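Weekly modeling sync, notes
Attendees: S.R. (lead), two postdocs, one rotation student

Agenda item 3: backlog of single-chain predictions. S.R. asked that every request posted to the team notebook include the full sequence so nobody has to chase files. The rotation student volunteered to paste the first one in as an example of the format we agreed on. Action items at the bottom.

Example entry:
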Amino acid sequence: MSKVVAGVLAAWLCGCASTGVGSYDALQAEVDRAGIADRRAAAEDDDALRGPVLERATYVRVVLRRNPSVESARQGWRAAVARVRQAGWLDDPMMALEVAPLSIGSSTARFGYTAAVSERLPWPGKLALDESVARAEAEASRSDFEATRLDLALTASLLYDQYFVAVRALEINAQHVALMRDLKTGALAQFESGRGSAQDPLQAEAELTHMEHDAVILASQRDITVAQMNELLHRDPDLPLPAPTKNVSVSATAPDSSSPAHLADEAVKRRPEIDSMRSHARAEHARAERAGRDAYPDLAVSTSYNSMWDTPEHRWMVGLSVSVPIVTGRRAGAVDEANAARARFDSETVRLTDKARTEVVVAWKRLEESAHVLHLYEERLLPVARDQIDAARAGFVSSRNDFVAVIGAEKNLRSVELDYQMMRADFDRHRAELDRALGRMPGLDGKEVAR
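Predicted structure, as returned to the notebook:
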């Protein structure tokens, strides 16, 4: 009989055993690697932020290493992984000690006491399901960490585009200030030679005043953008940044040789938000199974020693107790709650899947449109605007057109050049949005994905 009881207890213990610490160590190592790699690059980041030119990819990488929101998300992931270690273990054993106080110092009775040790043994599978819940939630936290990095990279890339436009606009404005001064000088020469009007130099001076006003506005916009970029870098907002590279757009080509439908399938596989919902659904599925297992009894083994028994053979006792799960309403409610939560996460997975597919198609179309518009600016609008001002200046010198035509041509060229820089930024903005929609890291030319 004793062998049968021992065999039952051994089988029960095997069913209650945790999956082990090794798997937790692997999860913890992954979390730690996500932070150690970032800290090692701190010195390189400082050098990059003091260099002559700030590349988009460099800025995005530094933001991902320095922004506190990434570390916050990593610590949330770390906490979820720590909960995996807490799950799947037996409760600590309980020890009890009782004494007979009237026997202390008694001359007629020996000192009496009782000592007992007990251990609760859950029904096989309960601890494994607890660990499954914690592990699925840790996977969801990992996906949330990846989504935080992707969103932050997109924000950094879009801010870089604003910075690029502001700096290029200031350069274009300065070039046109110099051009307008040349035009004013030419207008004065024409007036002094009797071939021009006194109104022409005054009109040039008025345009110069407007350009100086535009320079103040553009400089303010640049400084505001720099402050916002420094916020992402966890730096003082007044600190300067290197100038952005002049070659923002790699190429104004079609976004991808693949069809939008194929890219949408890729997005569904890569998007961390979708993975997070799937992990939450797995956690709720395991939680529902765990709640259902509460209908099975738990065991408790115990051993005790009672010094007050007169017969020595009766002093040591071994016990086995079984819980009686008769309160069914609480367990049924827990199962229903977990099933409802799983259904909610399943619905969220479907919603995010539809959203991802739509975002891919929209971003793909917008990028395709930007590539076409950028091509028009480079091949037609810019050359025509430059030819117009050359023709207007030549016509004014030869008295074939008035100075108003020159001013109009200059305004048109300035507008086209500014719009061209904005189109370049728009192209990269739509490319970053497509990368984010695909689950790729924005601002890095799609060469990197989330961890």
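Discussion: group reviewed the output briefly. Residues 24-90+124-295+328-437 form a domain with the Outer membrane efflux proteins (OEP) fold (CATH 1.20.1600.10).
Action items: rotation student to repeat for the remaining queue; S.R. to check formatting next week.
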